[in-house]
Amino acid sequence: MSREYSAVLVRFGEIGIKSDQTRKRMIRLLIQHIQAALTESGVNFSKVRSEYGRIFIETNDASAAAQEASRVFGVVSTSPVVTTSASLDSIIDEGTSLAKLKFEKKKSFAVGSRRVGTHDFSSQEIREKLGAHILKNLKELDLEVDLSSPDQSIYVEVRDENAYIFTETVKGVGGMPTGSQGKVVCMISSGLDSPVAAYKVMKRGCIPVFVHFDNSPYSDETNVELATKQAQHLAQFIYNHEVKLYIVPHGDDLTDVLTHAPRKMTCVFCRRNMYRLAREIALIEDADAIVTGEIIGEQASQTTRNLLAESSAVCDFPILRPCIGDDKVEVEHLGMEIGTYKFAHEAVSCCSLPPKHPTVHSQLEAIPEAESKMDFDVLKEEIAEAEVIILRGGKRDT
Ligand code: ATP
Ligand code: MG
Description:
Layout: E1 7-12, H1 20-40, E2 47-51, E3 54-58, H2 62-69, E4 75-85, H3 88-102, E5 108-116, H4 123-137, E6 144-145, E7 152-159, E8 162-166, E9 170-171, E10 183-187, H5 193-203, E11 207-214, H6 222-235, E12 243-249, H7 251-260, H8 266-285, E13 289-291, H9 304-311, E14 319-320, H10 328-338, H11 366-371, H12 377-384, E15 387-392
Parallel strand pairs: 5-6, 5-7, 10-11, 10-13, 11-12, 13-14
Antiparallel strand pairs: 1-3, 1-4, 2-3, 4-8, 4-9, 7-8, 12-15
Helix pairs in contact: 3-4, 5-10, 7-8, 8-9, 8-12
C-alpha cells in the first residue's frame, strides 16, 4: 500500500467557464507552461495531463512540483495527492494512512469530498466512513471531528475510476495562461507601481515587452540597474516566450522638453514623449497596448486632467493602467507579494527634473504650441540607440 504522493492536482478557475474551444486552447497553454516550469526548476515528472476541470502532474516529487506549478499564471491552487482507485475500501485505506502521516495530535479534523462520475457510493458516504475509520484506527492521535472549523482536513476527490486524496493546498498566482493574450509594452520606471502594473497584465495572459527610459544625464544609473532587476524578476513568471527589455535613452528629448515646455508642465511633456517612444516599440514588437503604473492622484502627473493631457500623445494604442484605482498601500502589498518591492527605488526620484510646483491641471492648449518647437526626430534616434536585453529565451516546441 503506497502512502506516497504520486501526483499533483492543479486547479484553474476562470478557464473552466470558457467555451469548449477557448478552454481547450487555454488548458493546452497551461500544460505547456507547467511543463516548462517543472523542467526549468529540475523537478522530475512523467506526464502533465488534463481531465475535465483539472490538470494532473504525475511525479514522484509532488511537493516540489506543487510549489513550482503554483507560480504559473492560470493556476489557482495545487495539491500533492495520493492516487488510488475509486472504491470506498481503498479510499478509506489510503485516506487513513495519509491522515496518520499528516495529522497533528489532539486536534480537530474534517473530511471533505467531491465526486465526478458514476459510483456505487456517495460523497456523503466517503466523509462519514473515512471520518469514522480515522477516529477508530488512529486513537493514538486523540482526534475529534469538527465540521465547522476544523484544525486540519483531509479531502477526497473522486473522478471516474480514480480517487485523489490530499491534505495540503498551495495557493497559486491565478489569472490566465501566458500567451492567451498578446504582447504589451510595459513601461518600468524603477519605482514601485509600474512593475506591479506589469505583473497585473502578465497575470491576465499578456506577454510583456519591458521598456525603461534612461533619463541620464537627469538621473543616475541606479534607476537603470533597478529597472533591469525588476524586469528580470518579472520575466521569471513567463514561460515559453521570449521576454525583452528595451533600455531607451531619454535624455535628449528631455532637454528639448526643458527648453520649450512651460516649466510647470515639463512632467506632462516628458510622459507624452515616453508614450511616443513606447508606441514605437509597440510597432516594432507587434504589441497591442502600452502599460503604465499610474494611479489617480498619486503624483502631480497623475491627476485626471494631466492624464488627459498625456494620453493624447498616442491615439492608436490603448494605454492600460491596471493600478489606476488602487490605493498606494494595496500596490505596495502586491509589490511585496510578487517580489518587485525590494528592487524599487526608495524616496529617490527617478529624475532630477520635476518642477517645484508642477501643474495638476494642464492647459491643453499649451501642448501644440510647445510641441511645435520640439524636434521629434530625436525620439527616432533614441529608439535606434536603445539597448535590447533578452531576459528570457524563446518558445518551446508545441
Ligand atoms: P512608478 O509608477 O513606477 O512607481 P511613479 O509613480 O514615479 O513611478 P511617474 O513618474 O508619474 O510614476 O510615471 C508614470 C508612469 O510612467 C510609471 O508608472 C511608469 O509606467 C512610467 N514611467 C515613468 N518613468 C519611467 C521611466 N524612466 N522608464 C519607463 N517608464 C517610466
Ligand atoms: Mg507611481
